[in-house]
Amino acid sequence: MGTALRVAVAVVVVAAVVVALAWVFQRRLIYLPFGAPGAPASAYLSGGRDVVLRTEDGLELTAWWAPATGPARDRTVLVAPGNGGSRVLRVPLVRALAAEGFDVLLVDYRGYGGNPGSPSEEGLAADVAAAYRHLVEDRGVPPERIVLFGESLGGAPLTRLATERPVGALVLRSPFTSLADVGARAYPFLPVRALLRDRFPLLEQVRSVRAPVAVVAGGADEIVPVEQSRAVADAAGAAYVEVSGAGHNDEELTSGPVVVDTVVRVVGG
Fold first, then answer.
1. How far is CA 138 from CA 68, 130, 133, 167, 185, in A?
2. Which helix (H) or strand (E) holds 254?
3. Which label site among 7, 105, 165, 262 has the fewest CB atoms less than 10 Å from its CB?
4. What is the pLDDT of residues 21-62, one digit of tens each?
């Protein structure tokens, strides 16, 4: 075997190994959970309570309920986080929403925040559906009084939920067009579109949402290109707010006044 042929064979073998590893471990690259918070909701949120969400596939997930601390608006915000961390990281957002008069249900997905199970596209859809049922069936919240707030990845299962259930409004913070589009940009050396199991086709689904939609994006988002968030807003006919110079995890986007004001405006506050 000549040197050139040996090199070519080695390259092919290495490429095959890389692709195989990407296929096997892809969900570990997508979902980056933290463990249990270590304290109940009341340690972080005024009037906060731990609640249990029961999914249709038999899991019991811990979530946090926070009542409004400002003048009540008679609206409940269901918050679905992005792919990293746990509900503890979203405490500033919940506090800000509660101060504006919203009740808030903060979800942690399966595999996150000490919850059982492993995350996947179908799993996250089941988790937010369980949160919705908790609000409507257990707390008696009218569907038109529910505001869905999806942070980055969390916008995808909530958009799907909004196509399947009546809601009052949908707010998407830093949404992508699809997970495949983000993955292809992050890993240009891999055949992401062929490998990806969890696709989260947000752009395709948001066109079917009948409730008011608002999109907030960062002009300097280094994880979800702002062009993708703009495309989502265009497809939804959504109110669009762009925070100039803000990165994906900057405070202006995670819990800043612009984000909270967008929620207020989408419900007509």
1. 18, 11, 7, 16, 42
2. helix 251-254
3. 7
4. 344 445 567 899 988 998 999 999 999 999 999 999 999 999
| pTM of the predicted structure, to 2 decimals | 0.91
Following DSSP, what letter does each residue of 18-37 receive, concatenated?
A: HHHHHHHHHHHHH-EE----
- The CA distance from 124 to 81, in Å, is 11
Q: Which helix (H) or strand (E) holds 228?
A: helix 226-236
84-85 and 169-173 strand pairing: unpaired
Rounded Cα gap, residues 62 and 131, in angstroms:
10
Active site residues: 152, 221, 248
CA neighbours within 13 Å on the CB side: how many for 29? 17
| Cα–Cα dist 43/228, whole Å | 37
Burial class (CB within 10 angstroms; exposed 0-12, middle 13-18, buried 19+) of 194:
exposed
Do strands 76-80 and 213-218 pair parallel, antiparallel, or not at all (unpaired)? unpaired
Q: Which two tokens stand for residue 223?
A: 């994880």
Domains identified in the chain and CATH numbers: 31-266 (3.40.50.1820)
